[in-house]
Every structure is written in C-alpha cells, then in structure tokens.
C-alpha cells in the first residue's frame, strides 16, 4: 500500500517530456491560429466603444492537428498514447503552467498604465481576489488574445486526451462498447458559457466557434486563475475522468441502455442547439425575433422567451447523463462533472438574480 501511494505521488512529478508536449501543443496553436484562414468575428462593444476581432479558425486547426498526429503515428514519428502514458505528469505540468501564467498576468496587470477597456487594470487591493478573478479584461501576448486562446486550448486538449485514451485502449486490446460510446458523446460535448458548465459538442464548439465570442467569459470576465485553471486544467483533465475509468474497467452495456443513452443525448442536443442559437442571436441583436416575435427580456439583459431560460445550465444535466452512464457505475468519481456542475449552477444562479 505504501509503495502504491509512493508510486502515485511519483507519477505526478513533471518530466521534460510532459513540458515538451505542453509547450509543443501551445506552439502549434499559436502558429495555426495566426496563419490558417478563418471567419473574422467582431466581439462585443467594450465600455470605451472599442471591440476586439476574433479569427475563428479553430475547426480547421483542430482537424489539421489530428491529421498531423495520425500521419506522424503512421510514420512512427509520434506515439498516440503519449498523453495517456503521462496523464498525471501532464496534469501537474499544466497546473504549474497555470500558476505561472496567473502570476505573470497579475504582475503585468498591476504595471499596466493603459486606459483601454481591454487592458485597464481593475485592482481591488485584495491580492487573492485579484489573482483569482484577474485584473485585465482582454490581456494579450505577442498579439495573441490569451482568453480566447486558452478556451481553444482547453477544448482541443480535452479531445486529444480522449483520443489518446482511445488509442491506449486499442493498444491494450481493451476497447469496449462503453468506451466507443463515451468517445462519441465527448466528441459532441463541449463547454460553453463558463469554464465549469458542460454542454454539447467539441466538434460543434469549433463549428460554431464564433458563438464563444458572445459568452460571458469573453465579454465580461477578467482573465485570472479562475479562467486559466478552468480552461487548461479543469476542462480537459476532469471532464475526461470517465475515459480514464473505462480504460481500467471494461464495461459492456445492454442494448436497451445503449439505445436509451443515444436517445437522451440526441434530444438534449437538439434542444441545446436551438436554444443556444437564440441566445447568441439575441446578444448580437437584441431586436432579433424569437419564435417569430419580439424577444421577452428579464431586466433588459436576460432572454426570457427562448426555449428555456438559460438552457445551457438546466439542459447540461440531461446531456451529462448518457456521458456518465456509459461507465455502468454510480461511483462518485464518474459523477464528478454532475457534482461540480451542480455547484456551479448554484453559483451562477445568483448572477441571473442580479441581472433580473
């Protein structure tokens, strides 16, 4: 038991290989985000009347990355199990990176003298509060908008972890129907509105990447440890827990359970997609028709006449059900996203109350 615990702790120690993997991933995202074509989307109007513009080329960047990895694996240049072989190393490495980035953001924010809405420092004097929530709204590094960049990195990182876990299952001859279902559900599950809220579609996220430019994270949240950690650590590493579980525990579901999971997932997605489009259209144009009629609003800010008031929050629980059910267990580990999601729902509900 002592040896197992020691081995577990040792597996968290970062290695240079994990550092190279992480920095190589970020380097690819910087280059691909700068050179690949994509739709340029105008962000929300800021307090000083300015607005940022985002190049939404995440989908082509993701597809190119997966293609390069497959070609590299075919040529024996890269290992598709590199991530799954170093899962805990990468977790601790990414956590350390998040802390370092937070410290740099704090120092840069405190030294900033700019008056622009994006970079104007918001310092409360409480160092914990300032580091957690951030000081600047839209900090950038070498022309890269860090907030948008970290969200993209987290979503792609989640997919890469899942694909590496899948490759590991195939390599170990441990591929189950539950693993296949989990991969399919996660391929179409995404995080939206906030770094803690699981909704629908990784691929969908990048196909509709411009929708992210109208979310609360982008238009209102300052960039601090909360968002950096949420994007780079929380999303990819905690939302992939079910995959890690299935890698060590082969689960075969009955046909009825498979059909039920797929049905719940499909209904949940259809409701979400329609509702999320309504919300995005409303944020871009408050006079946009909803159900063919002028929108009903709550407090002038919250859309109340959509499919469901803030469907991203309530609908997420239905979408999480098939994603968790493929593990065939009620183990708290596999229910982590449901538990964390419930905590977040109680947190965000107070924001809606204030808006109303």
Structure notes:
- The structure is a single chain.
- With 356 residues, this protein is mainly α.
- The protein has one domain (2-270).
- It contains 15 helices and six strands.
- The strands form three sheets. It has a two-stranded antiparallel ribbon.
- A hairpin with a 3-residue loop joins β5 and β6.
- It is globular.
- It starts with a helix and ends with a helix.
- Mean pLDDT is 76; it is low at 189-200, 306-315 and 342-356.
- The chain crosses the membrane at residues 20-40, 52-75, 87-108, 149-167, 179-202, 223-247, 253-272.
- It comes from Ambrosia artemisiifolia (Common ragweed).
- Belongs to the ERG4/ERG24 family.
- Its main location: membrane.
């Amino acid at each position: 038991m002592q040896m197992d615990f020691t081995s577990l702790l040792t597996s968290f120690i970062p290695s240079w290989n994990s550092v190279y993997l992480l920095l190589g991933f970020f380097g690819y995202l910087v280059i691909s985000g700068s050179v690949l074509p994509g739709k340029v989307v105008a962000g929300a109007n800021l307090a000083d009347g300015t607005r940022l513009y985002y190049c939404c080329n995440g989908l082509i960047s993701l597809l190119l990355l997966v293609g390069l990895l497959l070609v590299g694996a075919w040529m024996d240049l890269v290992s598709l199990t590199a991530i799954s072989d170093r899962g805990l190393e990468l977790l601790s490495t990414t956590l350390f990176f998040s802390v370092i980035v937070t410290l740099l953001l704090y120092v840069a924010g405190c030294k900033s003298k700019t008056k622009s809405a994006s970079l104007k420092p918001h310092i409360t004097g409480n160092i914990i509060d300032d580091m957690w929530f951030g000081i600047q709204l839209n900090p950038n590094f070498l022309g890269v908008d860090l907030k948008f960049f970290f969200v993209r990195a987290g979503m792609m990182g989640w997919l890469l972890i899942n694909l590496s876990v899948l490759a590991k299952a195939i390599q170990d001859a441990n591929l189950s129907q539950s693993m296949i279902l989990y991969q399919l559900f996660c391929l179409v599950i995404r995080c939206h509105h906030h770094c803690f809220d699981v909704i629908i579609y990784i691929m969908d996220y990048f196909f509709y990447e411009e929708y992210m430019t109208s979310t609360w994270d982008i238009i209102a949240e300052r960039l601090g440890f909360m968002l950096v950690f949420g994007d780079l650590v929380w999303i990819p590493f905690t939302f992939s827990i079910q995959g890690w579980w299935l890698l060590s525990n082969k689960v075969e579901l009955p046909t009825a359970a498979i059909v039920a999971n797929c049905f719940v997932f499909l209904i949940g997605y259809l409701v979400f997609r329609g509702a999320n489009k309504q919300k995005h259209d409303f944020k871009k144009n408050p006079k946009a028709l909803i159900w063919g009629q002028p929108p009903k609003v709550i407090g002038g800010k919250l859309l109340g006449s959509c499919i469901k008031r803030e469907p991203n929050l309530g609908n997420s629980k239905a979408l999480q059900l098939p994603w968790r059910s493929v593990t065939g267990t009620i183990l708290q580990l596999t229910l982590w996203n449901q538990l964390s999601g419930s905590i977040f729902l109680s947190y965000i509900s107070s924001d809606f109350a204030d808006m109303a």
